Amino acid sequence: MxxxxxxxxxxxxxVSGVRWPGGPLGLGxxxxxxxxxxxxxxxxxxxxxxxxxTADLEVERAELLDTQGVELVDVVVMPLRGDAVAIxxxxxxxxxxxxxxxxxxxxxERVPAQGARLQAGTRYDVVVLLRGVGTTxxxxxxxxxxxxxxxxxxxxxxxxARSCA
Length: 165
What we know:
The chain is mainly β. It is 12% helix and 44% strand. It is built from two helices and eleven strands. Residues 3-16 and 97-102 have low confidence and may be disordered.
């Protein structure tokens, strides 16, 4: 009987750490897409990916897989309400200061991805800030929703180059 109790506890601990694919946050679909931006010097560039969760969730971790020559500076989330504009790919200097409000980018509303709470039905831009010259794999977001843990992977791989051909 004691052995069964120990096995039950071990199974509970193992299962509670499992992250299931799917869930209420989609980061793309099937296949892969590439995004390239040319960089000058040591500048930081931003790549945004729009999402719209189907249930409330909390982001536990956001990371890029397989980076080569590229530093992940940060991952942030900003809400896209009304006519707010998402960041596609741009140099960070283009969205700092007074520019975002005039351009419709709600940069001042950004929050760190880790710990961000996303509401069902609201559009968000998950923005990856990068520095360097090289490539990355896809964005992976681990999150919790409705008592379950999930992981979603995007379809976009990023390239930072001196010149995009």
